[in-house]
Amino acid sequence: MADPKGFLNHGREVAKTRPVGERVKDWNEVYVPGSLLPIISKQASRCMDCGIPFCHNGCPLGNLIPEWNDYAYREDWTAASERLHATNNFPEFTGRLCPAPCESACVLGINQPPVTIKNVEVSIIDKAWEAGGVAPQVPERLSGKTVAVIGSGPAGLAAAQQLTRAGHTVAVYERADRIGGLLRYGIPEFKMEKRHINRRIEQMRAEGTRFRTGVEIGRDIKAADLKKRYDAVVIAAGATTARDLPVPGRELKGIYQAMEYLPLANKVQEGDYVTAPISAEGKHVVVIGGGDTGADCVGTAHRQGAASVTQLEIMPRPNDERHPTNQPWPTFPILYKVTSAHEEGGERIYAASTTHFEGDEDGNVQWLHLAEVEFVDGKLTQKPGTERKIPAQLVTLAMGFTGTDRVNGLVEQFGLELDERGNIARDADFQTNVPGVFVAGDAGRGQSLIVWAIAEGRSAARGVDRHLTGASDLPAPIRPTDRALMV
């Protein structure tokens, strides 16, 4: 145990953010560089090393949280990094992007603010990178087996790294022009600077993983050809089919899916454009969807100089605190969350449904018409007399995803079966109905969190390794049927 009285002596402190007026003028990460290290040992000391550490169960990776909290408290950063990497390939990603279900399951959180697990995690890995402690792990011998991984998001990268380290020759295929999937083009720079992805890719290259960008399986390479070329295939293509909003006026210009809008801002930071082809500059922006992707659109619009930003959510405003009956500890509660993007301004409207869009004579969207909704007999129903309109010259749809891509032919060409939710079906080893073809991440689970994606990639890698060699020592943190700790 780090400090038996740590949780009594120290309150919760989190990473400090830069002033709003400063950070909206650039695309750097919102946090004050170096602000965690002076406080992180005290924060780690708040961990009680519980007899039953529920944080392990809150995290699908099974992170050894009390152990690396103890090492961080003692400032043994080498040991802390080793325990962190024992269960997580990419802690610098999760430490920045994960909503931290581990903290919701923290035992201290029953009656106090929980341990800042996420901040401790990112401090350990940043310290490890600075000290040169993250080295390539080259396999001692090669198996002679080859694996293709389709998709380079967190699930695909985790599976590729695990399989490479097991001695297999792995090639990652990515249809975009750069490796990273949604980490690269879905996550804004102000949430995670892409240098973190770049150095992991270099580590993986040094270990032996090969990367092929600008190649879409199903179009550029047929599934049958890929299957002939490799001994096994891992599909980690994500759930990229966006949920649409079929209301009158949807065809107007200026209405985009979030994943049409966000990648262009990231491409500006990569140097591909001087200004984004779709920009919020000087426009009244409406973001439809109250989740993390919606918040990413809000923060991006602020940095592009939007005249106003309004975020709509069809569900009622969540509670500020956990409901003891409906969302009891240690489940992951749905709470009112103020992200760094929300701190920067804009309006949030809850319990509102879009009825239609209105445009000008040139077919550009100008107004969004909405109405308040309420639950009646368990169904969301429009409240009479609540209709109104708000200015909307740029609208982004951030309402989630409905499944993996069916347009490029990948599913049909492989002959894959889907489950009742439209995801690619798989067995206990993450293998599809096609022998030698496996699936990991959102393509098999549906839209989920980054920690679930990495956990799936690690577990699928074990299934592939066992398929290729007859046995495997690789860890498998989750089963494909496991679900988040929620009610």
From TrEMBL:
<dbReference type="GO" id="GO:0046872">
    <property type="term" value="F:metal ion binding"/>
</dbReference>
<dbReference type="GO" id="GO:0004355">
    <property type="term" value="F:glutamate synthase (NADPH) activity"/>
</dbReference>
<dbReference type="InterPro" id="IPR036188">
    <property type="entry name" value="FAD/NAD-bd_sf"/>
</dbReference>
<dbReference type="GO" id="GO:0051539">
    <property type="term" value="F:4 iron, 4 sulfur cluster binding"/>
</dbReference>
<protein>
    <recommendedName>
        <fullName>Glutamate synthase [NADPH] small chain</fullName>
        <ecNumber>1.4.1.13</ecNumber>
    </recommendedName>
</protein>
<keyword id="KW-0479">Metal-binding</keyword>
<keyword id="KW-0314">Glutamate biosynthesis</keyword>
<comment type="pathway">
    <text>Amino-acid biosynthesis; L-glutamate biosynthesis via GLT pathway; L-glutamate from 2-oxoglutarate and L-glutamine (NADP(+) route): step 1/1.</text>
</comment>
<keyword id="KW-0411">Iron-sulfur</keyword>
<dbReference type="InterPro" id="IPR017896">
    <property type="entry name" value="4Fe4S_Fe-S-bd"/>
</dbReference>
<dbReference type="GO" id="GO:0006537">
    <property type="term" value="P:glutamate biosynthetic process"/>
</dbReference>
<keyword id="KW-0028">Amino-acid biosynthesis</keyword>
<dbReference type="InterPro" id="IPR023753">
    <property type="entry name" value="FAD/NAD-binding_dom"/>
</dbReference>
<dbReference type="Pfam" id="PF14691">
    <property type="entry name" value="Fer4_20"/>
</dbReference>
<dbReference type="InterPro" id="IPR051394">
    <property type="entry name" value="Glutamate_Synthase"/>
</dbReference>
<keyword id="KW-0521">NADP</keyword>
<dbReference type="InterPro" id="IPR009051">
    <property type="entry name" value="Helical_ferredxn"/>
</dbReference>
<keyword id="KW-0560">Oxidoreductase</keyword>
<feature type="domain" description="4Fe-4S ferredoxin-type">
    <location>
        <begin position="38"/>
        <end position="69"/>
    </location>
</feature>
<dbReference type="GO" id="GO:0016639">
    <property type="term" value="F:oxidoreductase activity, acting on the CH-NH2 group of donors, NAD or NADP as acceptor"/>
</dbReference>
<dbReference type="Pfam" id="PF07992">
    <property type="entry name" value="Pyr_redox_2"/>
</dbReference>
<dbReference type="InterPro" id="IPR028261">
    <property type="entry name" value="DPD_II"/>
</dbReference>
<dbReference type="InterPro" id="IPR006005">
    <property type="entry name" value="Glut_synth_ssu1"/>
</dbReference>
<keyword id="KW-0004">4Fe-4S</keyword>
<keyword id="KW-0408">Iron</keyword>
